[in-house]
User: Fold these one by one.
Assistant:
Number 1:
Amino acid sequence: MAKQCAVVWDESVLGYDLGGSHPLHPVRLDLTMRLARALGVLDGVEVLKPEPADDVDLERVHRPEYLAAVRSAPTAGWEVGHGLGTDDNPIFDRMHEASALVAGASILAAEQIVTGRVDRAVNLAGGLHHAMADHAAGFCVYNDCSVAIAWMLANGVERVAYIDVDVHHGDGVQAAFYDDPRVLTVSLHQHPFTLWPGTGFATETGSGQADGSAVNIPLPPGTSDAEWQRAFHAVVPSVLESFRPQVLVTQCGADAHREDPLADLSMSVDGQRASYQALRDLAERFAGGKWLVLGGGGYSLYRVVPRTWTHLLATVLDRDLDPLTTIPEAWMSHAVRVAGNVPLPTSMTDGADPAFTPWSGITDHPVDTAIRDARHAVLPLHGLDPLDSRD
C-alpha cells in the first residue's frame, strides 16, 4: 500500500449495543469487517486492539459529573438525566465501559498518526459525533471524535480539520470547538429544517477568534450523488487550503444513502465511494497525508453500511475496489442468516455514476443555493471571494 495505515478493531467494540431494535445496531460493524476480509481488503493488515479511554482523556471534552452519571446509569434507573434513558439513548449494561472503549479506539488511531507510526488510521466503531459535554444525544454517549481531536491538541498538534459527511449535522464536534481557532469543523448534512438535530445552518461559522472555523453546508432532501459532490467541491477544498491542517479527521457516516431509513438524501454506494476518494485526496493535498478516519451513522444495516464502509476501508488502505466486484458467497450466506427477509445486494455497486458538474456560480437549483449560502457565509472569513468559482 502507498501509505502506512493502522486499522483499530476488536470485537469487543460490538459491546456498544443500544438494544436489539435500536437503529444503531452493532451488526453493521460485524458485517462490514466480514465483508472487507472476504474481499481481501484486510489481507496482511494487523489490526490494533483498543483500550478504554481514561477519565483524563474523556474530561477534555466531557464534564466529570456526566461521566459519573454514565457510570451509575445501569444501576440508577430512569432518573439519571443527562440525556440517558431516552428512546435515542437507552441505558445498557456496562455503558461507560463500552463508550469509553470506542473513544479509546479513536485515541489509539490518533496516536498512531501523531507519533509518526502511520499516515492514516481508521476506527469504524467511532464517529459518535452528537454527544455533548454534559449529555448524550443522537445514539452517542461519549463523543469520540472530539475526544480524539482534543487528545491531538494536547499532544502537540496545532491545527486539526474535521470533515463530517454524515447525513446529520456534526453538532457535538462543532459545539466542542466552536470558539477554538485550532480546529476547523466542516459538516455536509441534510438541511436542519428537515432533519434532527435542527442545527448546522450556513450562518453558524464559529465565535470570537474562531469565526470562520465552523463551516456548514445544509443540503435539501433528495440531494443526489452529483449534487452532493458539487457542493462538497465548491466549498471544502477552498477552506482546507486556507486552514492548512496538520491532520484531517473525517466522520464518514453512511446514512446519506438513498435507502437509509432515518433521512432523505439520495446518495448511492458509488457516490459515497467517490466522497471517500475525495477525502483521501484532500488529506494528501492539504494535511501532509495525515488522515484519521471514523465511522458514524448508517442504518441500512445489511444492504448499505457493509458495502459503503468496505469501500471506505479499501480507500484508506489504497486498495480501491472495482464497484462491479461481486460480493463473496461466504459473506452472503452469513448475511442471509442475520438479515432475515431483507434482500441483499450481490455486488459492490448501486449502478450509479457519481460524476458531477462543478459549481459555476449559477444558482438555479436548491443545491446551488445551498452552495451560494455556504460560500457567502464562510469564504470571506478566510479571505476568499465567494463569487469566484475558482475558490
Number 2:
Amino acid sequence: MDQIPDLLNGFGTALTPANLFFAALGVLLGTAIGVLPGIGPAMAVALLLPVTYGLDSTAAFIMFAGVYYGGMFGGSTTSILLNTPGESAAVVTAIEGHPMARSGRGPQALAAAAMGHFVGGMIGTTALVLLAPTVAGLAVDLGAADYFAIMVLAFVAVTSVLGSSRIRGFAALLIGLTIGLVGMDEMTGQSRLTFGSLHLADGIDVVVVAVGLFALGESLWVAAHLRRSSGEPIPVGRPWLSKADLRRTWRPWLRGPVIGFPFGAIPAGGAEIPTFLSYVTEKRLSKRPEEFGTGAIEGVAGPESTASASAAGTLVTMLTLGLPTTAVASVMLAAFQQYGIQPGPLLFDREPELVWGLIASLFIGTVLLLVINLPLAPVWAKLLRIPRPYLYAGILFFAAVGAYAVGGEVLDLLLLLLIGLIGFGMRRYGLPVLPTIIGAILGPAAEQQMRRTLQISDGDLTGLVNSPLAATVYAVIAVLLMWPLVRRLVRRRTRDRAES
C-alpha cells in the first residue's frame, strides 16, 4: 500500500487555499457549462487552455479535473429536466430522468444523480489509486477484435431493451450507423455521403446529432402537441429522496462503478458504453421492470454512478500510458504537453506532486459537487415552472448556439434542423432515439476496429473471434438475441401443458 503516503501528500498539495479555490472554480464552471446543450466538458477544458498559461501546472490540472467532473454532472441536469443531454455521457439519463421530471419528481431525479456521481466518483477514484497499474496492464492486452466485440455488445444490448419492438430498435440503430458513415474513410481517403461538401469530410459531430435528436426533436414534438394539452408548467414536486427511493437506488449506486471504471480505462467509447450497459443491467435486475421508460429512479442512479466512475477509469490510462480514451482526456493530454510533461509509466516518479495532487483533488471535487448541487436540486427543478412555449424556445436557442459552437459553420445549423426533423419523425413512428445516438457515436470506431481486425487476419472472419474475451462477448450477444425466443417457447410449452 505504498500509494497511501503518496495520496496523503497529494491531499497536502490539493488542500492549499489556492488549489482548493481552483478545484471549486472548476466544479462550478464545469456544472454551468455542462448545463448548456452541446457544450460539454471537453470543449470547456479546451476553452480554458489559453486561460491557464500563467497558472502553475498543478493548479491548472486540478481545475481541469473539476471541470471534467462538473461538466458530467451539469450534462445530467439538462438531460433530466429538459430531455437535452449537455454531453454524450448523459444521454442515457434522459430515458428515465425526464419522465420523472414530467411527473413532478425532478428533484428526486437530480438528487439521485448527485448521489450517484458522489458514490461513483469516490469508488472510482479509490480504484484509480489502488488499481491503476493493473487496469492499465489489462487495457494494453486488449486487441482490435476485443474492442469490436464490446461495441457490438453495446449495439445489441441497447436495441434489445428499448422501444416497443426489436425491429424498431435495430431500425433506429441503422439510422445512427448511417449518420456515422458520413465523412472521409480514414483508411482509403474516399468521401462517403458528403454530397461534395468539404465541411462534411470530418463527419457530423456527435454533439450536433445528440442535440438535434433530443433537444430539437423534443421541442418539435412538444410544439406539435401543445394545442392538445393545457400547456401548463410541469409540477416540481417534493424535494429530496424518500426511504423508498433510497431502497431502490443504493444498489445501482454501488453497481455503477463495477461497470464504469473498467470501461473508462479502455479506449472503447468512454462513458457511453458503460452507461448503456448499466441501464440494461438495472432494467434486468429491477423488481419493477414495467416502470422503465416511464420514470424508474434506478435508471438514473445506475448510469450516473457509472459515468462518474468511468471518468476516474479514463484517467488511469491517460496518466499511466499517455493514452487518451475520451475527448476530455485528449484535451488534457494536450494540456500536459503544453506544460512540457509527458504522461506515461514514469509520470508518477517524475511528477509525484502533480499526479497525487490531481488525484486528491478528484476526491475533493466529488465532495464539492455533492455539497453544491444536492441543495440546489429543487432550485434547478424550478426551471420546469417556466411555461413550455418559453422553455422550449430557450432550449432551441441554446441548442442552436451549442451546434454552431462546434464548428462555427452555418451548415451545422442546417444539419441540426435536419437531424431534429429525423428525431421528430422517430418519435412519431415509435422508434427509440437512444440506439441512433449510440450508432452515431460508436459506429465509426466499431468500423475501424473491425477493419483493423480483418487486416490483421488477412480477411479471415475467424479473426473476429480469435481471443477468449471476444469469444465470450459474442456468446453473451447470442444469449441476448436468443433469450426472448427461448422464453417465448418455454411459455408456450408451459401453456400447452396447462391446457392439456
